[in-house]
């Protein structure tokens, strides 16, 4: 139980980077971008084939981010210059990326099990620090039997994700970032204040997909493989993370909203992991669970709100009835 | 300053809906001119504003600002020269962002946008000073979301956002028409004050004839895509609503008719 939650947090904190990317397009730019299902795989594919070809893992991960940036920019160009509707532009790009990803990998799957990944490197540096032994000691004194093999991935990824979050927060407060945020709200105003909306959208979708591809590159290295189909359903996972985060935490400021998205991604992973522990569930059910989570997160607040309204109305009516009865008695 | 040469634009050419919205318009504005524009519904006033701002491309003619031809510039580049306040109070601001963030976006209008903070301590102070001139207490609500403001407050903010970076031309298209009378009066007096203090060259479309007479140093009347009446200075200041209606009848041979026009 603890080990599987620990694993969920490990991958959750990486998927959080992807969720931040989806947040940039869906929430900030109001651009429902489906490119991510392809660019996530592009990230994994570029990282994996670079590593297999002897490129250092850190460089491979940066290349993955760059490839995602290009893919996102292309979607932005399709929309702004080609005047293609955002959803369709994303679907077209995602479809094209499927072939491109196969070309990058040269085969449907690349295994990294024999290779040195970022996380292997991290693990060997880490074991010298003795932090694992220290933390696991604490866990065993509180009575846990199964202990995680390493804390390196979780702790280092928390640091990396927080750095990415802080950079995103800062970016969204810069002159460029403010104009970008206004685009999702009011394009006409942004144009009338002399900002190049086309270029901002292209750049914004590019940054979003750079984050998604970074997550893809890292997930590939964590899992030890890249696969042409690993992006399937990713957009719903990203949305689930955003919606869960927004439902549970405050989103008043940008800094709070991005934190909510990160926490949402981790909580989403934990929910799925726990759901899969139920006996009759199979791994293949994960997508359905995700869809159900999103639907529930969207519908439940509405139902609750409607109930509240109903109760309020009934109370009002009852009050009025009572008043009427009171006055007729008199 | 602003020069319009032989501007013509026809919508839906060659279809039954064909509409000549601007018909050979020539207009020259002097530095510091404040021109009010009146005309019946569909006269082409908004189309004229859209041609100047770059939102619409004319079929024929040139737009020249400060000696520079404008037509080859996309709208966003032209808006470094041209500031606009729209009729719809929702159109000029970003509701999910704060007052100071909106002002910061506007502040970058005629500068290059960079990767540095948009709202700095120093700018905050400057925004506060600017908001004070509106006299509606917005200076104490810098971090409030603009979506929470009333239509009048939003329009006042839009006016400030458009003018405080001093565009070469200020375009106001019925920017008080969507407000209730009290708020409209407030925005009108703010407009008068801002234009007087900054000396901005201004074109203001209004459907209130009295307002068109009270404000500015020049008045033009449009009808069917043409400028049919143009008075300035001394002559304008003596003008009355009756004169305007007479002038229209004399030129067009028919009664001025527009149920939206407020006579006074
Ligand atoms: N984008 C457009 N497409 C077709 N016709 C238009 C368009 N914009 C304006 N028109 C027509 O051009 C004429 C002038 O419109 P407009 O400039 O909005 O008038 P107003 O003086 O009331 O602001 C009207 O008949 C209008 O229907
Ligand atoms: Mg109009």
Automatic annotation (TrEMBL), chain A:
Q: What GO MF annotations does this protein's record show?
A: transmembrane transporter activity
Q: Which domain of life is it from?
A: Bacteria
Q: Does the keyword Transcription apply?
A: no
**Residues annotated as region Disordered?**
311-330
Arranged from A to Z, the UniProt key words for this protein are: Cell membrane, Membrane, Transmembrane, Transmembrane helix
Q: Which GO terms describe its cellular component?
A: plasma membrane
- Using the UniProt record, give the first listed, main subcellular location: membrane
Q: Which residues cross the membrane?
A: 12-29, 58-78, 85-104, 151-172, 193-219, 231-250, 257-276, 288-304
UniProt membrane topology term = Multi-pass membrane protein
Q: Where is the composition biased (Polar residues)?
A: 320-330
The protein's location, in the record's own words, is: Cell membrane
Record protein name field: ABC transporter permease
Identify the species of origin: Oceanobacillus chungangensis
UniProtKB/TrEMBL annotation, chain B:
Cytoplasm found in the keyword field: no
Q: Which InterPro entries match?
A: AAA+_ATPase (IPR003593), ABC_transporter-like_ATP-bd (IPR003439), ABC_transporter-like_CS (IPR017871), ABC_transporter_ATP-bind (IPR050166), P-loop_NTPase (IPR027417)
Q: Please report the stretch or stretches of sequence annotated as the ABC transporter domain.
A: 2-249
Q: Principal localization?
A: membrane
Keyword Nucleotide-binding in record = yes
Q: Which GO terms describe its molecular function?
A: ATP binding; ATP hydrolysis activity
How this chain sits in the membrane, per its record, is: Peripheral membrane protein
The record's GO CC annotations read: plasma membrane
Gene3D superfamilies from the UniProt entry: P-loop containing nucleotide triphosphate hydrolases
- Keyword annotations: ATP-binding, Cell membrane, Membrane, Nucleotide-binding, Transport
**The name this protein goes by in its record:** ABC transporter ATP-binding protein
Q: Which organism is it from?
A: Oceanobacillus chungangensis
